[in-house]
Amino acid sequence: MVEETISLGMNESSEVRKISSVDTSCKILKTLQKQNGATVSAISESVGLSVGAVHTHLATLREHGLVAKMDQKYWLGPQLVPFGEYVKHQSDLYRASKKEIERVAEETGECVHLIVENNGQSIILYDSFGEDAVGTKFHSASREKPSNHLHYHAAGKAILAHLPSERIHQIIDEHGLEPMTKNTITDKETLFEQLSEIRSRGFAYNDEEELLGLRSVGVPIIANEELRGAISFSAPVSRLQDEYYHEEIPDLLKKSANIIEINLQTNDLSLE
Known about the structure:
This protein is an alpha+beta fold. It is 48% helix and 18% strand. The strands form two sheets. A five-stranded antiparallel sheet has the order 4-3-7-6-5, sandwiched between helices. The protein has a two-stranded antiparallel ribbon with strand order 1-2. Helix 5 (92-108) runs antiparallel to helix 10. The longest helix is centred in the last third of the chain and has 25 residues, at 242-266.
């Protein structure tokens, strides 16, 4: 029997054995997500396999409900929904954070996010929108993306700042420093200087680096000396200024991160 290896991020070795058929199926699923559905020929071109081979993979994935076919195109299947919900609800970080994230969103009226790092990129594990939140469509779309870069949002930079230097270099080498706006940091030296500042003050800023007109603040979540993720707060520039941006929100998020860290360490994981 071949032993499979699941990579959870920075502590896993990149030198792992792969099962080629499983790797191909994963590439097909990612293609369907990225292209929002695709024909067999489009999938064949994307993964570099013959149309016949792609048909075989798709037939197997359809049998398990992971892929669906409609109007000559293939789409991600409904069976993936319970998979995703299971992963989220089995996460102790999600269960330790949910109530606190919702509390901050309700108290401030803005967007609050829970972010984790996986394979050098960020994934939104959970977010909550207050009554005055803007950009909810943008944030919801980000949640559906396979992953996002870490360097252009506050939670991602808060995570990067607490990774080993060697790991940060690996992430940059693999994923680059893609610009999202004119304010995005795209220079490695500048990024490392900012990460040093983030470590010193305990939180990160995103000053219109991901989306023009939007600012955010991010704070790492570290429990039992282990980096678990980050919590972030985002709001329009017009509402996130001066002391509110530079002092009040960072203090609020640091207190929230502290509560989440205690929940993790005491196993207080109730969602009620």
